[in-house]
Amino acid sequence: MSGSTSYHAGLAAEDIVARHYDRSGHRVIARRWRGKGGEIDVIAQMGDDTIFIEVKKSDTHAKAAARVGDHQIRRLFDCAGEFMGTLPDGMLSSVRFDVALVDSTGRVEIIENALAT
């Protein structure tokens, strides 16, 4: 897959995931949020909880899950900490980290609290 095709496939996967969270009653508050250390694909809220979502797309959910690496996890935690500074309760906010896997058919599998600290 070329760089441009891969980029657009990633954007499409993020759109699918954002719609999935929206339909399940979450409020999507940010897409591709950029912090100093990187980017968070989707940020949603449900009640007082803020959910940071890493989206991975591949042919299968298993292949997508295998693409979540230690470097990305550290980057996500760093960016989430920066974003939490903008929330009313700051670093004491209730948060979770989900991984959203999207396969080649557009089917979504959400792993809630996948990156529990």
UniProtKB/TrEMBL annotation:
Record keywords: Endonuclease, Hydrolase, Nuclease
Record bears the keyword Nuclease: yes
Source taxonomy: Bacteria, Pseudomonadati, Pseudomonadota, Alphaproteobacteria, Rhodobacterales
Membership in a protein family: Belongs to the UPF0102 family.
Name of protein: UPF0102 protein SAMN05444004_11470
GO molecular function, one term: nucleic acid binding
Keyword Nuclease: yes
HAMAP family: UPF0102 (MF_00048)
Source organism of the structure: Jannaschia faecimaris
Signal sequence range: none
